[in-house]
TrEMBL record:
<feature type="binding site">
    <location>
        <position position="243"/>
    </location>
    <ligand>
        <name>substrate</name>
    </ligand>
</feature>
<dbReference type="InterPro" id="IPR022674">
    <property type="entry name" value="G6P_DH_NAD-bd"/>
</dbReference>
<protein>
    <recommendedName>
        <fullName>Glucose-6-phosphate 1-dehydrogenase</fullName>
        <ecNumber>1.1.1.49</ecNumber>
    </recommendedName>
</protein>
<feature type="domain" description="Glucose-6-phosphate dehydrogenase NAD-binding">
    <location>
        <begin position="13"/>
        <end position="195"/>
    </location>
</feature>
<dbReference type="InterPro" id="IPR019796">
    <property type="entry name" value="G6P_DH_AS"/>
</dbReference>
<feature type="binding site">
    <location>
        <position position="348"/>
    </location>
    <ligand>
        <name>substrate</name>
    </ligand>
</feature>
<comment type="function">
    <text>Catalyzes the oxidation of glucose 6-phosphate to 6-phosphogluconolactone.</text>
</comment>
<feature type="binding site">
    <location>
        <begin position="93"/>
        <end position="94"/>
    </location>
    <ligand>
        <name>NADP(+)</name>
    </ligand>
</feature>
<dbReference type="GO" id="GO:0050661">
    <property type="term" value="F:NADP binding"/>
</dbReference>
<dbReference type="InterPro" id="IPR036291">
    <property type="entry name" value="NAD(P)-bd_dom_sf"/>
</dbReference>
<dbReference type="Pfam" id="PF00479">
    <property type="entry name" value="G6PD_N"/>
</dbReference>
<feature type="binding site">
    <location>
        <position position="50"/>
    </location>
    <ligand>
        <name>NADP(+)</name>
    </ligand>
</feature>
<dbReference type="GO" id="GO:0004345">
    <property type="term" value="F:glucose-6-phosphate dehydrogenase activity"/>
</dbReference>
<feature type="binding site">
    <location>
        <position position="224"/>
    </location>
    <ligand>
        <name>substrate</name>
    </ligand>
</feature>
<comment type="pathway">
    <text>Carbohydrate degradation; pentose phosphate pathway; D-ribulose 5-phosphate from D-glucose 6-phosphate (oxidative stage): step 1/3.</text>
</comment>
<keyword id="KW-0119">Carbohydrate metabolism</keyword>
<keyword id="KW-0560">Oxidoreductase</keyword>
């Protein structure tokens, strides 16, 4: 077993302690950190929400969540009991500020017990409209601390447009310093996403090829087989642009597009990512017409079961104009990427659940083989698969065994599961540990969030102001609207997908 990290005593306060995020992600992550020896020696977890619960009942609920959702399966009872000794519950209605009094008492009692170096982490796992209120109450009750002893974690969505993101940044930075604020995008904590940095900047062969001279185009495709399920109410006011592209997909694009940082310092890495966002070509009305596609799913059959169209999901307007699919062609106007398209697509109720980054290299400058030999010719591709397969594939041409000279594409594969026997941690484990150790590398800085909103605002505004007449325009279990195929086909390419077993 690994030993505990040398982290100061830590109190984690979870607002939204009874919610879905805590039960499915945060509690399993904290328990696994404890089980793997990564929690500080002295720690406490305070769950808060409105409903009255005893500490015992709260622990029981968390244990059910861990048993159901943890990557490591059911808890080991003895270990759980020890972990849960440090878990308590405070009933706090953040809209009744006086209830912060109880929380203050609990925090101060623990601070006294743990000593002067105790740090407090506030995790805001509640609806976004409560973020400003909680920040203000923490400030009013003298709980906002300083850079050394207090951090606040803000869940996505961070604003619903540029204006609201700026407002929220303004409120938060009026109370906390930027060093205290952790804007979480759990995608960045995924093992395969973190490996993009390692792959790009720890291998010398790649950098000379990583530019417009050798790369033809790039695709980032995050597709989901599921529909909106019971999140229709939330999704109606979000849509694919806000829910996925503004954060997860643009963050992936930054990791692929960024220049080499001079060191692994959080701000240096974030500077390089912001540079990518700033270099992205703004959308003109013409670009929006020709370089963006929106879609909405209609009913269909998934694995033998009929599933409803988006407009018939619970909480969804029967005439909804919300997009459940988006595909966009971006350009990064700098020396490295000038003229190289980055195609990005995401959607719900698509044929496959997968997150893939495909880098297609340019063709060889001259074909020396006779045409019969190259029937299955394929330009080299580097395929980074984030999920469900965790792998990096380099597609190269190889000679098929036999007396004839026949070429076909073959994959050189680095597969996580085959290479490393250990279980990979969940994104939330990585990110919670980062918060405890004060590492902001994988968290979005204020300017990063605002730059991403600024880029997308013309598309968001255009899509909202002009209702789509073609919705619904793709069938559940398809690859999305035909226009998305046309978007990329016009440039002579097609969307790439790995032939995976369906999840
Ligand atoms: P949820 O299941 O609806 O939970 C909301 C939580 O907030 C509950 O614990 C609720 O408990 C509490 N709450 C509501 N009003 C309150 C008030 N006035 N004072 C104190 N507590 C209050 O939501 P969720 O799915 O966990 O999502 C929480 C946040 O995380 C949202 O911002 C969401 O966008 C984000 N997020 C969630 C996921 C996910 O997988 N669920 C993923 C990414 C981001 P009571 O009713 O007992 O007060």
């Amino acid at each position: 077993m690994k030993t505990s990290l040398n982290v100061n005593p830590t109190i984690v306060v979870i607002f939204g302690g009874t919610g879905d995020l805590n039960l499915r992600k945060l509690a399993p992550a904290l328990y696994n950190l404890y089980a793997d020896g990564y929690m500080p020696e002295k720690y406490a977890i305070i769950g808060t929400a409105r409903r009255p619960l005893t500490d015992e009942k709260f622990r029981e609920n968390l244990m059910d969540g861990v048993n159901q959702f943890s990557r490591s399966g059911k808890v080991k009872q003895e270990k759980w009991n020890k972990f849960a000794e440090n878990v308590i519950y405070n009933s706090v209605d953040v809209e009744t500020p006086e209830s912060f009094g109880l929380l203050k008492k609990s925090i101060e009692k623990l601070q006294k017990e743990f000593g002067p170096k105790t740090q407090v982490i506030y995790y805001l796992a509640v609806a976004p409209n409560l973020f400003p209120l909680i920040a203000k109450c923490l400030s009013d009750y003298g709980l906002a601390g300083n850079e050394d002893n207090c951090r606040i974690v803000i869940e996505k969505p961070f604003g619903r447009d540029l204006e609201t993101a700026k407002e929220l940044n303004c409120i938060l930075t009026g109370i906390f310093t930027e060093k205290q604020i952790y804007r979480i995008d759990h995608y960045l904590g995924k093992e395969t996403v973190q490996n993009i940095m390692a792959f790009r900047f720890a291998n010398s062969f790649l950098e000379p090829l990583w530019n417009r001279t050798y790369i033809d185009h790039i695709q980032i495709s995050v597709t989901e087989q599921l529909g909106v399920g019971d999140r229709g109410g939330y999704y109606e006011s979000a849509g694919a642009l806000r829910d996925m592209i503004q954060n997860h997909l643009l963050q992936l694009l930054c990791l692929i597009g960024m220049e080499t940082p001079i060191n692994f310092d959080a701000d240096e890495i974030r500077n390089k990512k912001v540079d990518v966002l700033k270099a992205m070509r703004p959308f003109s009305p013409e670009d929006i017409r020709f370089s963006t596609v929106r879609g909405q799913y209609t009913k269909g059959w998934v694995e033998g079961k009929e599933v409803p169209g988006y407009r018939h999901e619970t909480g969804v307007d029967p005439n909804s104009n919300t997009e459940t699919f988006a595909a966009i062609k971006f350009f990064v106007d700098n020396w490295r990427w000038q003229g190289i398209p980055f195609y990005v697509r995401t959607g719900k109720r698509l044929f496959q659940t997968s997150s893939l980054i495909t880098i297609q290299f340019k063709d060889v400058p001259h074909h020396i083989f006779p045409s019969g030999v190259t029937e299955h010719w394929q330009q080299n591709r580097l395929i980074i698969s984030i999920q469900p397969e965790m792998s990096i594939r380099l597609q190269v041409q190889g000679k098929r065994p036999g007396l004839d000279m026949v070429l076909n594409p073959v994959d050189m594969v680095f597969d996580y599961k085959g290479t490393y026997s250990s279980d990979t941690p969940e994104a939330y484990e990585t990110l919670l540990l980062d918060v405890m150790t004060g590492d902001q590398t994988q968290f979005m800085r204020a300017d990063q969030v605002e730059a991403a909103w600024e880029l997308l605002m013309p598309v968001i505004n255009a899509w909202e102001s002009k209702k789509s007449l073609s919705f619904p325009n793709y069938t559940a279990d398809s690859w999305g609207p035909e226009d998305a195929e046309a978007l990329i086909a016009r440039d002579g390419f097609h969307w790439f997908a790995l032939p995976l077993n369906k999840e």
